[in-house]
Amino acid sequence: MKNKMKSINTCGQKQYSPLIPAIEAICKATPGDKLEIIMDNTIAFSDLKEYLIERNIGFREIYDGEQMAVQFIV
Fold it and tell me: Are strands 34-39 and 59-64 parallel, antiparallel or unpaired?
């Protein structure tokens, strides 16, 4: 049975950096989990992509108006 993609939407996050729920989801994931992280903060999105690249995690970028997303397998 294939793993369903878990979606983490950080759009509109005002209390703290949108990176916090994104990294939390990555840390809680088990190998093979599929994640989609949606953001509307371009700086945090760039930082997240850099984080994934540094860990050799391939990802797919999706741009939809003001929202950006990365999809990857942990």
Answer: unpaired
Instruction: Give per-residue pLDDT as tens, 22-45.
Output: 999 999 999 999 999 999 999 999
On whether the 6-73 domain is CATH 1.10.150.530, my answer is no
* pTM, to two decimals: 0.86
Nearest to 70 by CA among 31, 38, 32, 47: 38
CA 46 from centre of chain: 11
What angle (nearest 5°) sits at the alpha carbon of residue 28, between those of residues 55 and 13?
90
Q: Is residue 42 a contact partner of residue 53, using CB atoms and an 8 Å limit?
A: no
Nearest to 69 by CA among 16, 14, 2, 44: 44
- Residue type, position 46, single letter: S
* Residue boundaries of the structural domains of the chain: 6-73
Q: Which of 32, 43, 70, 74 is nearest to 57 (CA)?
A: 74
